[in-house]
User: Which sequence fits this backbone?
C-alpha cells in the first residue's frame, strides 16, 4: 500500500498517519502552489505508471475546491475503468465490485483490475492509529518529490476573481395557525 499526497510540506503529517494505519510507504509531492484537479490527476497518472497498482483508491472530492474531478480525470488519463462514490468495495480475483448509492437505491458495478475507485464517506468507519504503529511509522519510507520530478506542469490555469459570503437570510415570521399561513401565502401570490 502506497499513500500519496500532493501539497505543502505539512502534508507529511497526514502521510505519517496513513503509514501508522498500515500503509507500507508514502510519496509526498511537494508543491507550495495550489494544484488544480487536472494537475493532480497528471501527477497521479505518473505514479500509477511507475507503481503499476492493481487498485487506486481516491477520495470522492477535494476539501479545498470541492471539485470531484480528479478520480475521473485519472481514469481517463490511464485508460482504466472507474467506480465512483463507492460505499462498498469487494476485490474478487482480477475484478473489483463497487457498490454505490444512486438516486434509486444502490448500484453495483464490476470493474476489471487495474481500476480507479473514488470513495464515499460510508465506505468504512474511521479508525485511529495505535501508539506502537505511530512509532513504527516514523521508520517507514516517505519519499519527497516535486511535480518537476514527474515532468508535470502544475501552473494554475484558473484564477479566483472573488469569494463572497451568501446574502444574509431575512428573518422568518411565525404564524398562529394554518389559516393564517394560507392567508399570508395567498397575499404573497404563492397559494391559490
Assistant:
Amino acid at each position: 500500500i502506497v499513500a500519496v499526497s500532493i501539497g505543502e510540506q505539512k502534508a507529511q503529517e497526514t502521510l505519517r498517519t496513513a503509514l501508522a494505519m498500515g500503509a507500507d510507504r508514502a510519496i509526498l509531492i511537494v508543491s507550495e502552489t495550489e494544484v488544480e484537479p487536472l494537475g493532480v490527476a497528471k501527477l497521479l497518472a505518473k505514479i500509477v505508471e511507475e507503481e503499476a497498482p492493481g487498485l487506486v483508491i481516491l477520495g470522492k472530492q477535494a476539501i479545498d475546491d470541492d471539485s470531484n474531478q480528479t478520480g475521473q480525470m485519472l481514469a481517463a488519463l490511464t485508460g482504466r475503468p472507474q467506480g465512483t462514490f463507492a460505499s462498498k468495495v469487494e476485490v474478487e480475483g482480477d475484478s473489483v465490485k463497487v457498490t454505490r448509492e444512486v438516486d434509486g437505491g444502490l448500484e453495483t458495478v464490476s470493474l476489471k483490475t487495474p481500476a480507479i475507485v473514488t470513495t464515499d464517506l460510508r465506505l468504512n468507519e474511521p479508525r485511529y492509529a495505535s501508539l506502537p504503529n505511530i512509532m513504527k511509522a516514523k521508520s517507514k519510507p516517505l519519499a519527497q518529490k516535486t511535480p518537476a520530478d514527474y515532468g508535470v506542469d502544475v501552473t494554475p490555469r484558473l484564477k479566483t476573481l472573488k469569494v463572497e459570503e451568501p446574502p444574509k437570510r431575512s428573518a422568518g415570521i411565525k404564524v398562529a395557525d394554518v389559516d393564517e399561513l394560507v392567508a399570508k401565502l395567498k397575499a404573497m401570490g404563492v397559494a391559490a
The chain has one domain: 2-188.
